Write the structure tokens for this entry.
Amino acid sequence: MDFRMELMMSQRWTDTRLVFPDDFFENTERFVLPIEFIDLIWHPDPFFANAKSTDVGQLTQRLINIYIYKNQTVIYSINLFATIACAMQFQYYPYDFQLCPTVIESFSYDETLVKYSWSPVAPFTIDPKLRLLQFVVTYPLRTEECTIHRDNQARNFSQLVAYFRFDRLLGNHLIQTFSPCCLVVSLTWFSFWLELDAVSARVSLLVTAMLTLVTQFSGLKLDFPPVAYAKAVDLWMAMCLCFVFAALGEFVVVKVIYSLTEDVKATVAKAEENRIIGNEQEVLSTTSNTLPMTSRFSAQAGDRILIRSNHEPSLNEMDTMDDGTKEFDKNQAYISVYKQQDKRSSPKKIAHRISELEIPDLTYHFSNKLGFPLVWTDSKTLKKHVLWRDIDYLSRWLFPVTFCLCLFIYWTFLFIHSRLNSPDHKPVSYCS
């Protein structure tokens, strides 16, 4: 990890050994030393101690300029291109800043011969037109002067340190990372409003959202080198993946509970059907012994249940005589009763009667002691509750509220923690 910069480095020192005739300073306080004489005078030998590479700028010749003043002061300026190594920290990426020290050190002359110090006035100036795509350089820069000991030479050398602070711009990541992730997570909430029988629609929506986040996360890794710790953006992507996975898990749970509910309802309906048929068969066995033989033969021939017997005739069960009186025909009464009961006890009628029954409270038992309710009635409101419907309804509001709460905690924690660990609160020194 590094950054590359172009700089004009100027050094000032006084050399009492320099003696020039007065005509060199005719009508001026200084003169420019010609390029061919640059190597003939003494000058310090600084180097960038943490540079990966350093090049001297040149066009037709090396871009070096030396001013010599009457008072034997020398100003040595050189144009350089330096690639500086920087141990960047990405714990708070992309809400991070990078503090990169630039170390200038004497190569050959120890502290007794050369002592470096920063200029008391504006040691650094940055081009105000400089614009970086992802960072803002904090100005003014912090500087230090220190001494370093070299064990192989048993001497101390003068050293200058300048700290470049780069604050990352969030605009690109808000557009390319955070906003799309929020939209993908929000898209999964539509699955809670779909009917449970739309299995393909809900599964396709959730799985597509999951794959979209994984693809976006893989693309993010290409923007920075691999590190051995979790970054803030990793926590963000993990949070989004957890919400999408939770939505998928909610659908699986609701589907399983729905299947359990239908199985228990089918069991209850089957028991109710058996109870109805059993009651009618019991009535048949009780009444068949009291009916005339013709009626018993009619019931057996129809293979249905006869439940009416020994009753007072109704008007429609009597024949009208010529004088207007009613005469009761027992065989006709038995036959009509039998036909009505046969029509009412058909399989369709039994199924219709079962479907019109109110669904009772249902409980699924894992064992004799452990179970949970599938359908229950609120004792206060007397409202019927179905577990899988309530879970879907609760998820419609629980997921958005929880996600917004996580967003608030994430950004608040990230802001506070990054500010507390900034150099303004915990100054970092390269010299220590």
